[in-house]
Specification:
globular; 186 residues; 7-stranded mixed β-sheet; single chain; Rossmann fold; alpha/beta; Dienelactn_hydro
């Protein structure tokens, strides 16, 4: 049983103009924002179920770039529809099967290559929210190229002991009253 969805306005932020721009990286579209000075540090932002076009995720990309990182939010849904606030929760399990957060490896590899070869990045971290937090957990178990990871309110994706075999430091942040993950699992 899932709680009622938040009635959340996924429209434009008032008076907020994005600071970055969209790029095509091989088969993936992405939103990129860079700091005003050269850096060899980068962050991949993995969006939640609302996708890479969601104004709030672009705002976060811009905030991280403002702290001095080349920041990129790829479309990890590869052009397929994100979850919409008008969708029905009864369909969520089927939607998740078609948008599996543990199937992000190929796209992550493409973005890592872009950051290293096109942007000169040497240290690359990853941060993800909810669906993206699950993807972060998966990537930090599989991809040693990622220097550090932050998973915000992403359910733990594996119940086995393997879930602890992180390749690099990973910070998990959960909400005390988050209905998607039990306090015991945290």
């Amino acid at each position: 049983q899932m709680a009622d969805p938040f009635l959340y306005d996924t429209g434009e932020r008032s008076q907020y103009g994005c600071l970055g721009h969209e790029v095509q990286i091989e088969h993936i579209k992405a939103y990129v924002c860079r700091p005003s000075f050269f850096t060899d540090k980068a962050v991949i932002v993995i969006h939640d179920i609302f996708g890479w076009l969601f104004p709030d995720i672009r705002y976060i990309v811009d905030l991280i770039a403002g702290q001095g990182y080349i920041t990129v939010c790829p479309d990890f849904f590869k052009g397929t529809d994100p979850w919409k606030t008008t969708d029905h929760w009864a369909d969520f399990a089927d939607w998740m099967k078609a948008h599996d957060p543990v199937k992000v490896d190929k796209e992550a590899d493409v973005v890592l290559k872009y950051l290293k070869e096109q942007c000169g990045a040497k240290k690359i971290g990853v941060i993800g929210f909810s669906w993206g937090g699950m993807a972060v957990h998966h990537l930090m178990l599989k991809n040693p190229q990622l220097t550090a990871g932050v998973s915000l309110y992403g359910r733990i994706i594996r119940d086995s002991e393997e879930r602890y075999n992180l390749l690099n430091p990973t910070f998990f942040i959960f909400g005390e009253k988050d209905h998607t993950i039990s306090y015991d699992q945290v």
